[in-house]
Amino acid sequence: MDVTRANKAEEPDTPDPKAVEAIGRALAAHYAALVQAPVPDKFAELLARLEAELLTRLEIEERERDLAPQRRRDALG
Amino acid sequence: MPSASFKDDLLAEIKNLRAFAISLSGSVTLADDLVQESLLRAWSNSEKFQPGTSLRAWLFTILRNIYYSNYRKRAREVQDSDGFYARRLTVPGDQESHLDLEDFRQAMTMLPPEQREVLTLIGASGLSYEEAATICEVGIGTIKSRLSRARSKLVELLALEGGSDTPVERKIRRAG
Questions:
Q1: Of A33, B61, B144, B163, which has the fewest Cβ atoms less than 10 A away?
Q2: Are B41 and B26 found together in one domain?
Q3: H or E stretch at B38
Q4: ipTM summary value
Q5: Under-50 pLDDT residues of chain B
Q6: Which of B36, B101, B123 faces A33 most closely, judged by CB atoms?
Q7: Are residues B122 and B172 in the same domain?
Q8: Under an 8 A CB cutoff, do A15 and B101 touch?
């Protein structure tokens, strides 16, 4: 197998730097448009819900911890 | 358990995460599903995130894994019926620059996914070669090779090579 030829086939020639520059600018503009697009509220709502669920769970756990000594005393009579 | 600032940190990354998802899947609808699933997974696995490392890279890794596991086939089915993102998103600028972006977007969709994602990660999202290599689970040499091929293919598709003066070239130059 002609390795040189195989490598040449796999690796494209280096394009014109000015063309690469133009691609870079177009890519930046393309991506900036995507990043700047309005984001649906549902993502912020989802995170708020997850945080609220976490806080509720922590509160319950804390209450259970606070009540545990009293429950032990009650169980012992 | 997520830290006190974790929610705010996630919120700050949503725009970039969604942009990456749209670039990867070619569909706003799928991208929104991907972002939602990624946020849920990030939240429930928050202890696996190492403070001091890039949250963006970690989130991109999660989203990419979900995409290739569950969405890639669906993406091929949905892309054409989605009205496509460039037409659904407001593109700042005049009519001329909008056409430029439309040409560019079309050329992007013709790249193989592995080249498109590397171009997006490094050329647009500002991640390093190392971060892109970690996200894509390949070596840095492969990332560089894919990036080079992606650029060459775009140059070819947009007829930017050899001093040609095609309408596409003129539009791209004006967009810059």
A1: B163
A2: yes
A3: helix B28-44
A4: 0.74
A5: 80-81, 83-84, 86, 88-99, 164, 166-169
A6: B101
A7: yes
A8: no
CATH number, domain with residue B10: 1.10.1740.10
Q: Which domain-ending residue is among B39, B62, B89? A: B89
Q: Residue B150: which residues within 8 A CB-CB, separation 6 or more? A: B111, B115, B116, B118, B119
Return residues 70-99 of B near A (CB < 8 Å).
85-86, 89-93, 97
Q: Are B84 and B98 part of one and the same domain?
A: no
Q: What is the pLDDT of residues A13-63, one digit of tens each?
A: 677 888 888 888 889 988 998 999 999 999 999 999 999 999 898 888 888
Structure confidence at residue B97 (pLDDT):
44
Chain A closest CA to B124's CA: distance in Å? 6
Same domain, B42 and B114: no
User: Counting one residue from A and one from B, how many pairs have CB atoms under 8 Å apart?
Assistant: 124
What is the tally of structural domains in chain B?
2
The domain containing residue B115 runs over which residues?
A: 94-176
